[in-house]
Design goal:
single chain; alpha+beta; 5-stranded antiparallel β-sheet; 3-stranded antiparallel β-sheet; elongated; DUF1062 domain-containing protein; DUF1062
C-alpha cells in the first residue's frame, strides 16, 4: 500500500534536476467560461515549481462539481489518482518513481513455518513493483534466494514473477 505520493520524473527547467515531489496542491484558473487546472510539483533540488496539466481549456459546465471541489480543497487523494492516470502522465511527459513510497503489510509472521504457503497479493493502489522484491520482503529472503526458488520450481504462480506487476496475483511457496 502507498505511504506517500511517488516522485515525479521530469527535467527541471531551472537546475536540470530530474526529480519532483508532489504535495497535493492544485492551481485552478478560469478565463470566462474556460477552465485550466494544474497539479503543482516542486523540484527536489532547487524548489522550483512546475505545473502538470490536468484540465486544459475545459468548459466550466463540463467539469464535474465534485472534481472541482476536490481541486479547490487540494485533495492529496485526487493528486494520487491523477498521477496514476496514464492520460495525465502522457500529456505531461512524466514518469513516476515509487521507490520508498510504499510498504508491505504481511498480516503477521505466523505463516512462515508452514511447508506449503498459498499467498494472495492485493494492491491498495496500482504501484508497479517487482514480485520478487515483494516476496523477498514478505518472507525475509534475499532476492537471489527468491530467484533460486523460482528456478527450482518451489515458487510458482500463474503470472510471470519477473518484470513488474501492479495488479493482484497469487503464488505458492513450497519449502
Amino acid at each position: 500500500m502507498p505511504t506517500c505520493l511517488p516522485t515525479v520524473l521530469r527535467r527541471c527547467h531551472a537546475c536540470a534536476s530530474e526529480r519532483f515531489r508532489a504535495n497535493g496542491k492544485f492551481r485552478v484558473n478560469a478565463n470566462h467560461k474556460l477552465l485550466d487546472a494544474w497539479l503543482l510539483v516542486l523540484c527536489t533540488a532547487c524548489g522550483d515549481t512546475a505545473k502538470l496539466a490536468v484540465l486544459e481549456r475545459m468548459n466550466v459546465r463540463s467539469v464535474r462539481p465534485g472534481l472541482l471541489d476536490r481541486m479547490h480543497d487540494n485533495d492529496p487523494g485526487l493528486a494520487a489518482e491523477l498521477l496514476q492516470d496514464p492520460v495525465v502522465r502522457r500529456r505531461n511527459r512524466i514518469a513516476l518513481d515509487w521507490d520508498d513510497a510504499w510498504r508491505l503489510d504481511t498480516g503477521g509472521s505466523d505463516h512462515l513455518d508452514r511447508e506449503v504457503i498459498d499467498v494472495s497479493v492485493r494492491f491498495a493502489a496500482r504501484i508497479p513493483v517487482r514480485p520478487g522484491r515483494l516476496i523477498a520482503e514478505g518472507f525475509g529472503l534475499s532476492r537471489a534466494e527468491v530467484g533460486r526458488l523460482i528456478a527450482e520450481g518451489k515458487l510458482v504462480s500463474a503470472v510471470r514473477l519477473s518484470g513488474r506487476l501492479s495488479g493482484d496475483f497469487t503464488f505458492t511457496l513450497k519449502r
